[in-house]
Amino acid sequence: MHMHRYEKWWLVFGTGSLVVFLFILGISAFHQGHTPPSAKAFVNHEQVDKIAPFNEPGLKKVEGKDWDYELVVLASAFFYNPGEVEIPKGSKVKVIATSKDVVHGFGVAGTNINMMLEPGYISEYVTTLDKAGEYLVVCNEYCGTGHHTMKSMIKVVD
Amino acid sequence: MNKALEKIDRKDAKLAMAHLYVAFTALALGGLAGLLQVLVRSGKFELPANIGYYQVLTTHGVLLGLILTTFFILGFQTAAVSRTSGTFSDGQRLTGWIGFWVMLIGTAMSATMILLNEASVLYTFYAPLKAHWIFYLGLTFVVVGSWVDGAAQISKYISWRKQNPGQPGPLLTFMAIINVVLWIVATLGVAAEVLFQLLPWSLGLVDRVDILISRTLFWYFGHPLVYFWLLPAYMCWYVIIPKIIGGKIFSDSLARMSFILFLLFSIPVGLHHQLTEPGIDAGWKFLQVVLTFMVVIPSLMTAFSLFATFETYGRSQGAKGVFGWIKKLPWKDARFAVPFIGMVAFIPAGAGGLINASFQLNQVVHNTIWVTGHFHLTLATSVVLTFFGIAYWLVPHLTGRVLTPAMNKLAIVQAFTWAIGMTIMSSAMHLAGLFGAPRRSSFSTYGDAQQAMDWIPYQIAQAIGGSILFLGIILVLVIFINLAFFAPKGEEEFPIGEVEENAEKTPMILENWKIWITLTIALILIAYTVPFMEMFQNGPIGSKGYRLW
């Protein structure tokens, strides 16, 4: 197929940039571990409030793991449990969350914590909170009439 | 000989116009729903009479995202196939009408359930929110009707190929057929979701539905859906615009090649809408992110081709300097200027799309109102303005009327109104989204949280932009009604571009459907087989239905 000389240059430049871009994404993902929340853990969502760790939602200090704290969150229409939590600044936190009923979102404004919570599936994300402040948690997936009232607060304190 | 005044058969024109009437009715109602939403979300307005915000949101999404687009596209493609491959046979036209009526009945069924507040599940209808079964059945009718409608176009293409052995099909017909094939392959996902999961479940025949499988089937369809919207705009950009400006199509083969690449790389990429979901391996998500980015290549080909056409034409008119050709373009012709604004909007829209699909950047914007802003630049500006630009010559062509200078001027005013409204609304959405403001949410201060208070000025800006956009909708409806019923009788051209005289012959391999469909299926199997098997083998118990509105 005939291609104009300039078009060849344009496509070589464009495709080249694309390859470089995807290469950087790949290194960031698989070498530096920056992958989106993709946990493959399951739970019976109808019994979830009786099953650990969701029987006791909240912040727990842990020892001997790659992170300092585990924040266990149980979402249901239209609440998060816990409704508010304080986390010491600079700590590495693993958020472990799931939904009791429909699909909810767990987006923490001003951070990279952003995941979907689906009944039966456990979502996990590890991050370090190194700036003090109040971070609003909002449900960012439509879940019903009370969707826009569903919130929680993460306070990162000195 | 003036080839431009070749007319579409009157009976085919009627079929195409029937589609456009439904499309523009959907625009009027869905646009009104959009206006109500931006007003509510500004915090200064409340819906009267127990109407729910999410009910209005469902109306807006279904009518504009699904009904306006599907009807407009199939109507435009009916006209395009009839114009370039010849009049439909009686059987083909009847097939088209059956498809049209099945879609319309389905639309009425779903719309009734939304109005009765039995289906406030938004246009993505994520389980386990459970709508009334008539809502799902109505959507099934829309999809099945679109297959029948598409079958009429495929049948016409096949009979053209039989009458012209050894020749590549007319370019515009070929493009329409690629889009129909893309649509059929993509809608198999949502059809499976509705037929095997949601319908039996909403009828009470089964108790539970697997959430992740339903979402994966939805997004298998949901991403190619955006290419189903985009490709007709590309048809206009590749084939119609060159004729309007008086130039030639840059390359027939490259145009076909880019459409084939869109077919190949629009479907096996749905997981990039599910990047923040549990239950899917990060490696498989990454593979689909890589496949997603392959559409960069046909997009670059398109951009090159369009600007090559513009520049070649400008220079043939004696333009000087590097950018002198820009002045030679017919800026006062709405048929060119309106879609051109759509093309310009596609530059930031495409860049935003790259951000959304990026493996890690998605984390920042996922489900924020940034995504809504992006969607309103791609679908609601690039695609919709191009559709308006098409309607401005297609409607008078089909109704035997003309686009008068006054309407032409009003059309340009309309497009600028749209551009201004959208710039305000979409920029405010993109910015608020970067700060974490969620999409698909009614007005809320979240207990007077400081971050949520900071979003409010952007929400007010959205209301201003949205109100300007609604003015734009009123203008486009005025023009549509004028062109359909009141404009003076006459002949309006259906512009079809021609290829440069010394262009090389189009290779027949581009129309070897066995190769392209096999490759499409192979890519889909590579991208989806393992993730699907894992979902079937490892999934948790399914979910019962909820009605939380």
Give a quick precis of the structure.
Chain A is α+β, with helices and mostly antiparallel strands and 158 residues long.
What's the β-strand tally of chain B?
0
**How many E strands of chain A?**
11
Q: What value does the average pLDDT of chain B take?
A: 94
The Cα radius of gyration of chain A reads 20 Å
CATH superfamily of chain B: Cytochrome c oxidase-like, subunit I domain
Helix content of chain B: over 70%
Number of helices of chain A: 1
Looking at the overall shape, the CATH architecture of chain B is Up-down Bundle
- What's the overall average pLDDT of chain A, rounded? 94
Structural class of chain B: mainly alpha
What are the segments of chain A in which pLDDT stays under 50 over at least 5 consecutive residues?
none
CATH fold category name of the largest domain in chain A = Immunoglobulin-like
Describe the structure.
The complex is a heterodimer of chains A (158) and B (549). By secondary structure, chain A is an alpha+beta fold. Chain A folds into 2 domains: 35 residues; 110 residues, Immunoglobulin-like (Sandwich). Helices cover 16% and strands 39% of the residues of chain A. In chain A, the strands form 2 sheets. In chain A, strands 1, 2, 3, 4, 6 and 9 form a 6-stranded mixed β-sheet that branches. In chain A, a hairpin with a 7-residue loop joins strand 2 and strand 3. The model of chain A has no long low-confidence stretch (mean pLDDT 94). Chain B has 549 residues and is mainly alpha-helical. Chain B has a single domain, classed as Up-down Bundle (Cytochrome C Oxidase, Chain A). Chain B contains 15 helices and no strands. The N and C termini of chain B lie far apart (62 Å).
